[in-house]
Amino acid sequence: LDQSYEISQYINDMASSGKPAEFSSGEYIIGTPMTLHARKLLSSKYGTKGVGLTLRGAGAGETVFKDVSGGVSPTILIGADPAFGIGNRNYLTKLSGFSLVKCDTGGNPLPVQTLSGSAIELRPIVAAGEVVHTTKITDVFVDGFSYGLSIDDCTLVELNNVWFCEFSQAIRLGYNVDIVKIQNCMFGSEQFGSTYRNSAVGIQTGWNAGFNTPGASNCISISNTWFMKIGLAFLANDTNDRNVVFDSSYFEDCRQY
Protein backbone atom coordinates (compact mmCIF):
# COMPACT_ATOMS: atom_id res chain seq x y z
CA LEU A 1 0.00 0.00 0.00
CA ASP A 2 1.69 3.17 -1.24
CA GLN A 3 0.85 6.11 1.04
CA SER A 4 3.21 8.58 -0.66
CA TYR A 5 0.50 10.75 -2.13
CA GLU A 6 -1.37 11.13 1.17
CA ILE A 7 1.85 11.76 3.11
CA SER A 8 3.21 14.40 0.74
CA GLN A 9 -0.19 16.07 0.34
CA TYR A 10 -0.57 16.32 4.11
CA ILE A 11 2.94 17.75 4.58
CA ASN A 12 2.51 20.29 1.79
CA ASP A 13 -0.96 21.29 3.02
CA MET A 14 0.42 21.93 6.49
CA ALA A 15 3.29 23.92 4.99
CA SER A 16 0.75 26.01 3.11
CA SER A 17 -1.09 26.78 6.33
CA GLY A 18 2.12 27.46 8.25
CA LYS A 19 1.63 24.52 10.61
CA PRO A 20 3.89 21.52 11.34
CA ALA A 21 3.05 18.19 9.72
CA GLU A 22 2.98 15.84 12.71
CA PHE A 23 3.05 12.05 12.49
CA SER A 24 2.13 9.70 15.33
CA SER A 25 3.78 6.36 16.11
CA GLY A 26 3.46 3.78 13.37
CA GLU A 27 4.78 2.63 10.00
CA TYR A 28 4.18 4.62 6.81
CA ILE A 29 4.77 3.14 3.35
CA ILE A 30 6.49 5.24 0.69
CA GLY A 31 6.29 3.65 -2.74
CA THR A 32 6.83 6.79 -4.81
CA PRO A 33 9.44 9.55 -4.33
CA MET A 34 8.03 12.62 -2.59
CA THR A 35 8.72 16.27 -3.35
CA LEU A 36 8.17 18.65 -0.43
CA HIS A 37 8.49 22.42 -0.40
CA ALA A 38 7.51 25.44 1.62
CA ARG A 39 4.23 27.05 0.57
CA LYS A 40 4.02 29.71 3.23
CA LEU A 41 5.66 32.99 2.20
CA LEU A 42 7.79 35.37 4.19
CA SER A 43 6.60 38.92 4.63
CA SER A 44 5.54 40.39 1.30
CA LYS A 45 8.35 42.94 1.50
CA TYR A 46 10.77 40.05 0.78
CA GLY A 47 8.96 38.78 -2.29
CA THR A 48 8.13 35.14 -2.97
CA LYS A 49 10.48 33.46 -0.50
CA GLY A 50 9.23 30.26 1.12
CA VAL A 51 9.48 29.53 4.82
CA GLY A 52 8.60 27.05 7.48
CA LEU A 53 8.17 23.50 6.15
CA THR A 54 8.13 21.26 9.26
CA LEU A 55 7.94 17.46 9.32
CA ARG A 56 7.81 16.10 12.86
CA GLY A 57 7.46 12.47 13.95
CA ALA A 58 6.98 10.97 17.39
CA GLY A 59 10.62 9.87 17.57
CA ALA A 60 13.09 7.83 15.55
CA GLY A 61 11.91 4.61 17.18
CA GLU A 62 8.23 5.48 16.87
CA THR A 63 7.53 7.00 13.45
CA VAL A 64 8.99 4.82 10.70
CA PHE A 65 8.86 5.72 7.02
CA LYS A 66 9.52 2.63 4.88
CA ASP A 67 10.72 3.24 1.33
CA VAL A 68 9.57 0.31 -0.83
CA SER A 69 10.00 2.10 -4.17
CA GLY A 70 13.03 0.08 -5.23
CA GLY A 71 14.34 3.06 -7.20
CA VAL A 72 17.26 5.44 -6.88
CA SER A 73 15.25 8.67 -6.88
CA PRO A 74 15.26 10.54 -3.57
CA THR A 75 12.64 9.37 -1.13
CA ILE A 76 12.28 12.96 0.08
CA LEU A 77 13.26 15.88 -2.16
CA ILE A 78 13.09 19.38 -0.69
CA GLY A 79 13.71 22.58 -2.64
CA ALA A 80 12.10 25.83 -3.77
CA ASP A 81 9.57 25.27 -6.55
CA PRO A 82 8.31 28.30 -8.53
CA ALA A 83 5.32 26.26 -9.69
CA PHE A 84 3.88 26.76 -6.21
CA GLY A 85 4.51 30.47 -5.89
CA ILE A 86 7.87 30.12 -4.16
CA GLY A 87 10.82 32.06 -5.54
CA ASN A 88 14.43 31.00 -5.36
CA ARG A 89 14.68 30.43 -1.61
CA ASN A 90 13.19 28.01 0.90
CA TYR A 91 14.07 28.90 4.48
CA LEU A 92 13.85 27.27 7.93
CA THR A 93 12.84 23.73 7.03
CA LYS A 94 12.81 21.31 9.98
CA LEU A 95 12.81 17.50 9.87
CA SER A 96 12.73 15.59 13.13
CA GLY A 97 11.67 12.51 15.05
CA PHE A 98 11.49 9.65 12.56
CA SER A 99 13.26 6.71 10.95
CA LEU A 100 13.70 6.41 7.20
CA VAL A 101 14.44 2.83 6.18
CA LYS A 102 15.01 1.32 2.74
CA CYS A 103 12.89 -1.83 2.38
CA ASP A 104 12.00 -4.47 -0.17
CA THR A 105 8.58 -4.48 -1.82
CA GLY A 106 7.20 -6.42 1.12
CA GLY A 107 8.16 -3.72 3.60
CA ASN A 108 11.06 -5.66 5.09
CA PRO A 109 14.31 -3.75 5.75
CA LEU A 110 16.97 -4.60 3.18
CA PRO A 111 19.46 -7.28 4.33
CA VAL A 112 22.74 -6.12 5.82
CA GLN A 113 25.24 -4.78 3.28
CA THR A 114 22.44 -4.34 0.73
CA LEU A 115 21.94 -0.72 -0.31
CA SER A 116 19.72 1.18 -2.69
CA GLY A 117 18.43 4.66 -3.41
CA SER A 118 18.83 8.16 -2.05
CA ALA A 119 17.05 9.08 1.19
CA ILE A 120 16.88 12.89 1.50
CA GLU A 121 18.03 15.53 -0.97
CA LEU A 122 18.15 19.29 -0.37
CA ARG A 123 18.70 20.86 -3.78
CA PRO A 124 17.14 22.83 -6.65
CA ILE A 125 14.05 21.13 -8.09
CA VAL A 126 13.64 22.78 -11.49
CA ALA A 127 16.56 25.14 -12.09
CA ALA A 128 19.78 26.36 -10.52
CA GLY A 129 19.31 28.91 -7.74
CA GLU A 130 16.14 27.39 -6.28
CA VAL A 131 17.86 26.51 -3.05
CA VAL A 132 17.21 25.53 0.55
CA HIS A 133 18.70 27.51 3.45
CA THR A 134 18.70 27.13 7.25
CA THR A 135 17.54 23.51 7.34
CA LYS A 136 17.65 21.58 10.61
CA ILE A 137 17.49 17.76 10.87
CA THR A 138 17.19 16.32 14.38
CA ASP A 139 16.54 12.89 15.93
CA VAL A 140 16.47 10.97 12.64
CA PHE A 141 17.63 7.41 11.83
CA VAL A 142 18.55 6.59 8.20
CA ASP A 143 19.36 3.03 7.10
CA GLY A 144 19.78 0.96 3.95
CA PHE A 145 20.23 3.78 1.45
CA SER A 146 23.22 4.15 -0.83
CA TYR A 147 23.08 7.89 -0.10
CA GLY A 148 21.64 9.18 3.15
CA LEU A 149 21.61 12.98 2.76
CA SER A 150 22.58 14.89 -0.38
CA ILE A 151 23.00 18.67 -0.32
CA ASP A 152 23.51 21.06 -3.24
CA ASP A 153 23.66 24.87 -3.23
CA CYS A 154 22.53 25.15 0.40
CA THR A 155 23.62 27.32 3.30
CA LEU A 156 23.29 26.70 7.03
CA VAL A 157 22.32 23.05 7.25
CA GLU A 158 22.42 21.65 10.78
CA LEU A 159 22.30 17.99 11.84
CA ASN A 160 21.90 17.02 15.46
CA ASN A 161 21.42 13.47 16.80
CA VAL A 162 21.20 11.92 13.34
CA TRP A 163 22.29 8.29 12.86
CA PHE A 164 23.34 7.10 9.42
CA CYS A 165 23.63 3.36 9.92
CA GLU A 166 24.28 1.47 6.68
CA PHE A 167 25.26 3.47 3.58
CA SER A 168 27.62 3.90 0.67
CA GLN A 169 27.98 7.65 1.26
CA ALA A 170 26.08 8.98 4.25
CA ILE A 171 26.31 12.67 3.27
CA ARG A 172 27.07 14.03 -0.21
CA LEU A 173 27.99 17.70 -0.63
CA GLY A 174 27.64 19.31 -4.05
CA TYR A 175 28.00 22.87 -5.31
CA ASN A 176 28.34 25.85 -2.98
CA VAL A 177 27.43 24.12 0.29
CA ASP A 178 28.27 26.61 3.03
CA ILE A 179 28.19 26.37 6.83
CA VAL A 180 27.17 22.81 7.60
CA LYS A 181 27.11 21.81 11.26
CA ILE A 182 27.14 18.10 12.10
CA GLN A 183 27.04 17.46 15.83
CA ASN A 184 26.16 14.59 18.16
CA CYS A 185 25.71 12.32 15.14
CA MET A 186 26.72 8.75 14.32
CA PHE A 187 28.00 7.12 11.14
CA GLY A 188 28.04 3.33 10.99
CA SER A 189 27.22 0.92 13.79
CA GLU A 190 28.82 -1.24 16.42
CA GLN A 191 26.17 -3.82 15.44
CA PHE A 192 28.23 -4.49 12.29
CA GLY A 193 30.30 -6.82 14.45
CA SER A 194 33.48 -7.95 12.71
CA THR A 195 32.14 -7.19 9.22
CA TYR A 196 33.38 -3.67 8.69
CA ARG A 197 31.95 -1.51 5.90
CA ASN A 198 35.34 -0.64 4.41
CA SER A 199 33.92 0.90 1.23
CA ALA A 200 31.54 3.25 3.08
CA VAL A 201 32.32 6.99 3.25
CA GLY A 202 30.80 9.18 5.95
CA ILE A 203 30.94 12.61 4.26
CA GLN A 204 32.01 13.22 0.66
CA THR A 205 32.22 16.35 -1.47
CA GLY A 206 31.97 16.59 -5.24
CA TRP A 207 28.36 15.45 -5.73
CA ASN A 208 26.88 16.58 -9.05
CA ALA A 209 23.16 17.23 -8.68
CA GLY A 210 22.93 18.28 -12.32
CA PHE A 211 22.40 22.01 -11.81
CA ASN A 212 25.88 23.36 -11.10
CA THR A 213 29.49 22.24 -11.29
CA PRO A 214 30.33 20.61 -7.93
CA GLY A 215 32.76 22.26 -5.57
CA ALA A 216 33.37 24.97 -3.01
CA SER A 217 32.06 23.42 0.21
CA ASN A 218 32.95 25.90 2.92
CA CYS A 219 32.89 25.81 6.72
CA ILE A 220 31.96 22.20 7.41
CA SER A 221 32.01 21.57 11.15
CA ILE A 222 31.86 18.03 12.58
CA SER A 223 31.78 17.89 16.36
CA ASN A 224 31.09 15.28 19.03
CA THR A 225 30.38 12.75 16.30
CA TRP A 226 31.09 9.00 16.19
CA PHE A 227 32.39 7.19 13.10
CA MET A 228 32.18 3.42 13.54
CA LYS A 229 33.50 0.55 11.39
CA ILE A 230 33.43 2.37 8.04
CA GLY A 231 36.11 2.91 5.42
CA LEU A 232 36.59 6.66 5.48
CA ALA A 233 35.22 9.50 7.58
CA PHE A 234 35.63 12.41 5.13
CA LEU A 235 36.59 12.55 1.45
CA ALA A 236 37.21 15.95 -0.17
CA ASN A 237 37.07 15.78 -3.96
CA ASP A 238 37.59 19.44 -4.76
CA THR A 239 40.55 21.74 -4.09
CA ASN A 240 38.09 24.55 -3.34
CA ASP A 241 36.70 22.79 -0.27
CA ARG A 242 37.70 24.96 2.68
CA ASN A 243 37.55 25.03 6.46
CA VAL A 244 36.59 21.44 7.22
CA VAL A 245 36.96 21.09 10.99
CA PHE A 246 36.68 18.05 13.25
CA ASP A 247 36.24 18.79 16.95
CA SER A 248 35.97 16.22 19.74
CA SER A 249 34.91 13.44 17.40
CA TYR A 250 35.60 9.73 17.70
CA PHE A 251 36.85 7.26 15.08
CA GLU A 252 36.43 3.65 16.11
CA ASP A 253 37.64 0.84 13.84
CA CYS A 254 37.63 3.10 10.78
CA ARG A 255 39.88 2.02 7.94
CA GLN A 256 40.92 5.61 7.24
CA TYR A 257 40.07 8.83 9.05
How do the strands and helices of this protein lay out in sequence?
Layout: H1 4-17, E1 21-22, E2 26-30, E3 34-37, E4 50-51, E5 54-56, E6 63-67, E7 74-79, E8 89-91, E9 94-102, E10 118-122, E11 131-143, E12 145-151, E13 155-164, E14 167-173, E15 178-183, E16 186-188, E17 197-205, E18 218-223, E19 226-228, E20 230-235, E21 242-247, E22 250-252
Parallel strand pairs: 1-5, 2-6, 3-7, 4-8, 5-9, 6-9, 7-10, 8-11, 9-11, 10-12, 11-13, 12-14, 13-15, 13-16, 14-17, 15-18, 16-19, 17-20, 18-21, 19-22
Task: Give an overview of the whole structure.
This protein is mainly beta and 257 residues long. Helices cover 5% and strands 48% of the residues. It contains one helix and 22 strands. It has one helix at 4-17; strands at 21-22, 26-30, 34-37, 50-51, 54-56, 63-67, 74-79, 89-91, 94-102, 118-122, 131-143, 145-151, 155-164, 167-173, 178-183, 186-188, 197-205, 218-223, 226-228, 230-235, 242-247, 250-252. It has a 15-stranded parallel β-sheet that branches. Strands 3-7-10-12-14-17-20 form a seven-stranded parallel β-sheet. The longest helix has 14 residues, at 4-17. The relative contact order is 0.11. The mean pLDDT is 93.
